[in-house]
Write a structure and sequence with these properties.
It is built from 5 helices and 8 strands. The protein is of the alpha/beta class and 154 residues long. The strands form 2 sheets. Strands 4-2-3-5-8 form a 5-stranded mixed sheet. Strands 1-7-6 form a 3-stranded antiparallel sheet. Strand 6 and strand 7 form a beta hairpin. The longest helix has 11 residues. It is globular, with a radius of gyration of 14 Å. The termini are far apart.
Amino acid sequence: MRILDQKKIPYTAHYYEESDGPEGTREYGLHVAQALGQDPKRAFKTLTARGASKDIYVFDIPTPDSLDLKKAAKAVGEKSIELLHVSEITAVTGYVRGGCSPIGMKKSFPTVFHVSALDFPTIYISAGKIGAQVEAAPGDLLALLRANTADITV
């Protein structure tokens, strides 16, 4: 939120009670969307992956969906990609699992949002910690992150 404030990007903060929630990013994302009364297709989860080149990439997809590794690799020009192991997330991004935001990671990584982000006036992403999300215009987020869009889900 500090970065959005610095860049004068309008957003709305949303908070939910922290809980372990169900296991798995899909289930936890649906749990968060439900807790906030959000359309799960507008609530985007952030996934971090490593390409065959060892470069790191960030993918934001609707919470009900699963990342298609082949489509994601093609979107970033890699031969293949694999999701980071849970134990690597904090060291690479600076965030903990369940609170990973595409904004404010330790480094700026190439980022791809699922193309459906552009279908909505606003979408929800993690605010960088468990228990908080921000709602912002997808165009503003894409511009801030210099992100692209692609069909990257199964």
